[in-house]
């Protein structure tokens, strides 16, 4: 017996949920607009719009209506590609499966919810698992977006830096007299909290005959937030002819100074000194 050949009462009731061939068939979607984080469910299939057409809005609570009881199925989708609906986990009466917020911001996004009467909550799964400021799908590959995860989102020791390419070695502790100025002497232990910056370069200094103290200013590629420590390494065959030092360090630059190795006061020949430098300081 088909639905159409059954009793009129039964057919009428059945056709609220399935078509004449027995296939699941929700009523045409109606649009629900979020108001203070809430929409009211009245059927199985709704489009959801943001309050006052805001670019993004949070959905925290779905009021139970339309005959919803334990096991009731609800499907929702964003009403507009240009407006984002964020289903928030356990803020109101919605529990998201992974414990993350779900972000619906495209026409192909949707969420399926089942009402669990024993806890008065909607159990939700959706096409987006986390806020898309962190995760994106590019050419079918799910990946972390550039700058999508900051240090505040990482648990202590959650990342093995030996697995990371182009890495700076982990900087556990530092001793000194200032929490910000790496050149201040002291024996206080500090754990850098604002990030560590290490920079490296190679510079040449022209030395002229009779010159007493040739100098060359080096500007850091990226400024430090405070004065770093600077170290020098001669890289040329003339290194035996001169002493060297880094002077006048600031957060943005320093000066390389050379002196004649015999301390006679001036150099007796013309040459080019090549020195490698590296600086370590607060980011």
Explain what you see.
The chain is mainly beta. The protein has two domains: 3-136, no CATH class; 159-283, Immunoglobulin-like, CATH 2.60.40. The protein contains one helix and 21 strands. β19 (242-247) and β20 (253-260) form a beta hairpin. The N and C termini lie far apart (76 Å). The model has no long low-confidence stretch (mean pLDDT 85).
Keywords:
mainly beta; Immunoglobulin-like; 3-stranded mixed beta sheet; 283 residues
Overall helicity: under 10%
- Rg on CA atoms, Å: 34 Å
- H/E topology pattern: HEEEEEEEEEEEEEEEEEEEEE
What ranges have pLDDT less than 50 throughout 5 or more consecutive residues?
none
Count of helix runs: 1
N-to-C span = 76 Å
> How many distinct folded domains?
2
In the sheet with the most strands, the strands line up as 1-3-6-10-11-8
Structural class: mainly beta
Q: Kindly state the number of beta strands.
A: 21
Strand content: 35-45%
Largest sheet: 6 strands, mixed
Overall geometry comes to rod-shaped
Q: Quick check: average pLDDT?
A: 85
């Amino acid at each position: 017996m088909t639905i159409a050949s059954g009793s009129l009462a039964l057919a009428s009731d059945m056709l609220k949920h399935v078509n004449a061939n027995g296939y699941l068939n929700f009523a045409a979607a109606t649009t629900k607009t979020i108001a203070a984080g809430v929409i009211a469910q009245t059927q199985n299939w709704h489009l959801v719009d943001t309050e006052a057409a805001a670019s993004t809005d949070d959905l925290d609570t779905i009021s139970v209506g339309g005959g919803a009881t334990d096991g009731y199925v609800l499907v929702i989708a964003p009403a507009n590609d240009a407006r984002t609906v964020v289903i928030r986990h356990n803020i109101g009466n919605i529990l998201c499966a992974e414990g993350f917020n779900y972000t619906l911001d495209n026409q192909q996004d949707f969420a399926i919810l089942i009402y669990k009467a024993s806890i008065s909550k909607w159990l939700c799964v959706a096409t987006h698992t986390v806020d898309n400021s962190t995760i994106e799908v590019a050419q079918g590959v799910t990946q972390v977006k550039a700058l999508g995860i900051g240090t505040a989102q990482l648990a202590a020791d959650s990342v093995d830096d030996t697995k990371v390419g182009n890495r700076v070695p982990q900087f556990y502790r530092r001793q000194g007299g200032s929490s910000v100025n790496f050149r201040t002497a002291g024996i206080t232990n500090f754990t850098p909290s604002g990030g560590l910056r290490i920079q490296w370069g190679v510079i040449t200094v022209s030395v002229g005959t009779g010159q007493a103290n040739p100098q060359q200013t080096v500007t850091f590629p990226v400024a430090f937030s405070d004065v770093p420590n600077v170290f020098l390494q001669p890289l040329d065959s003339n290194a035996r002819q001169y002493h060297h030092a880094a002077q006048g360090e600031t957060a943005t630059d320093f000066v390389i100074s050379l002196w004649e190795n015999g301390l006679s006061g001036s150099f007796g020949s013309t040459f080019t000194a090549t020195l490698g430098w590296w600086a370590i300081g607060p980011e």
